[in-house]
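ARCHIVE CARD
Drawer: 12
Card no.: 0347
Subject: one protein chain, sequence and derived structure
Cross-reference: see card 0346
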Amino acid sequence: MMSRMRTVIDVPDELIESLDQVGALEQRSRAALIRDAITEYLKVKSIPAAEEAFGLWKDRKTDGVRYQRSLRDEWERE
């Protein structure tokens, strides 16, 4: 299990009311809803996989386009 850290944040009353409404509907705690919200936020804000892959071909001897064409040639032979 992951370790947890408690933190204190200031949240406007309107958001707390909304959290309580959603929590009541889903029968979940505020903390669980906030954890899910943070997780979803970080998925959106994290570096996309495409950017992480940038530069993977730099040490390859084959050009990326030539490699794609060779793969497509295999499809045509089938």
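Annotation on reverse: The CA atoms of residues 33 and 39 lie 10 Å apart. The chain has a mean pLDDT of 87.
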